[in-house]
Amino acid sequence: MKRIICIICVIVICIVLSITYAYSMYQKNGNEIKKFNNNFLEYTKTEFYGNELATIINLAIDNNENYEIPKDSKGKYIVDDSYSVRVDIYLRDTEKEYSMELINSGEISNFVNNYSNIKFKCTKVEYHKKTGRISYLYIEQIS
């Protein structure tokens, strides 16, 4: 009888530990996603200057490199359903839309030199359905 009670107690303890571990991992993942999204969301609430846009582009490229997101034949990151981040920028000066890869390939420092005093605003944010992470930002020049 004591042996059966001990076995049941061990099984219950294992189940409780498993549930606690799973919940802990769920919370950790949620906090990581929240932290990641906040890196970008702080720029979606207000207007910002070109040097901060360079920071956004660098964050997106660093993320894509970290998760080894492949590039297509034109050098653009291929969108996946979990981790990729894409940033498109509309410049009123040229009335054209540019990808983050194009701006980065032209040396981000040149962009900062030319647009550091120009204001921008994020007008569109999209999220990955699978992970809840930011997947796309559309940023427009406003001045």
Q: How would you explain this protein's 3D organization?
A:
This protein is of the alpha+beta class. It has one domain (2-141). It is built from 4 helices and 5 strands. The protein has helices at 2-41, 50-66, 100-105, 108-115; strands at residues 48-49, 86-91, 96-99, 119-127, 134-141. Strands 1-4-5-2-3 form a 5-stranded mixed beta sheet. A hairpin with a 6-residue loop joins strand 4 (119-127) and strand 5. Helix 2 runs antiparallel to helix 4. The longest helix has 40 residues, at 2-41. The radius of gyration is 22 Å and the shape is elongated. It starts with a helix and ends with a strand.
List keywords for this structure.
alpha+beta, 5-stranded mixed β-sheet, 50% helix, elongated, 143 residues
The total of beta strands comes to 5
H/E element sequence: HEHEEHHEE
Look at the structure and give the mean pLDDT. Answer: 90
* Major sheet characteristics: 5 strands, mixed
Poorly predicted spans: none
Distance between the termini: 80 Å
Q: What does the overall shape look like?
A: elongated
Strand order of the largest sheet: 1-4-5-2-3
> Roughly how many Å is the radius of gyration?
22 Å
Q: Please indicate the percent range of residues in DSSP E strands (runs of 2 or more).
A: 15-25%
Helicity range? 40-55%
